[in-house]
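agent> fetching stored inputs for the zinc ion docking request
agent> found them:
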Amino acid sequence: MTTLTTCTICNTTYDVEPIVCSKCDYPFSASEEEKSTFVGQLFSKKLIIQEARVKVKNTQKILWAIGGVNVFYFIILFSFHPTLNIYILDLLLGFVFIGFGFYAAKKPFRSILISLILLLGIYVSNALVDPISLFRGIIFKVIFVVGLIYGLLAIYQVHKIKNKNEYFKEIDW
Ligand SMILES: [Zn+2]
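agent> prediction call returned; pasting tokens
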């Protein structure tokens, strides 16, 4: 008759107690102190993932703000010059950013990265035409760019945790 050993962290069962859990790396044969250190580290990693979720939600809001600014810009220009000219691009880009804001709930890294490249592309191409344009609303530009980079870093950190430990892979993004 064999008694099964169950991992206290991830509930994986073993016929023979392993040295470390193959799924979550729980150190079965370590000292109590090492075990509690392991649990502490596991907890702080969980916290990082939770915080990253909040950061991604904030990044979504930034994407909606970028989109909103573009749509608003179009409305202002259109009210002064009611012709569908080059400014229609601002409206379309506005909707693209708003769309990526929603898509970030599903594919956060991809959505934010594409948005960041697009945003920098817009700033650079505008600056090539009119260098002064770069300084127009510079504070908002900095907030937008830094905000998106901040979101990407948070997601990258979560990816690193997930790649190292099988247990975290099961946690939904
Ligand atoms: Zn385990």
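agent> quick read of the result: The chain has a mean pLDDT of 92.
agent> awaiting further instructions
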